[in-house]
Amino acid sequence: MTATAATATATTATTTQPTTTTLAHEDEALDSVLYRATGSTRGIEALMMTDASLATIFLPAGAVVPTSPLAAAPASINTRWVNLWQ
């Protein structure tokens, strides 16, 4: 299966926004699946809390990992300097 074939889009009846899912490679960690699919690991804590089967060290091959458009959005970057010794 190619990397492009491993990503699918499905629409659920309960939500109006499409949910994007990505299939995990064998012994791949959840953070690496999210980074591969969205370019960020944002939202990993919420994803692990909503689906306990994803809260393992290594995912089995073909595990379905839901990735939402919210997780793909870049986080705002704080450009303020912080002085730790004030």
Describe it for me?
This protein is an alpha+beta fold and 86 residues long. Helix content is 23%, strand content 15%. It has a domain at 25-72. It contains three helices and three strands, in the order ββααβα. The radius of gyration is 16 Å and the shape is elongated. The relative contact order is 0.21. Residues 1-23 have a biased composition (Low complexity).
Which properties best describe this structure?
86 residues
Structural class: alpha+beta
Mean pLDDT: 75
* Number of E strands: 3
Give me the strand/helix succession: EEHHEH
- Overall shape: elongated
Give the fraction of residues assigned to helices.
Answer: 10-25%
Number of helices: 3
Low-confidence stretches: 9-15
- How much of the residues is beta strand, in percent? 15-25%
**Order of adjacent strands in the largest pleated sheet:** 1-2-3
Sheet with most strands: 3 strands, antiparallel
Distance between the termini: 55 Å
Protein name: Phage tail protein
Organism: Ostreibacterium oceani
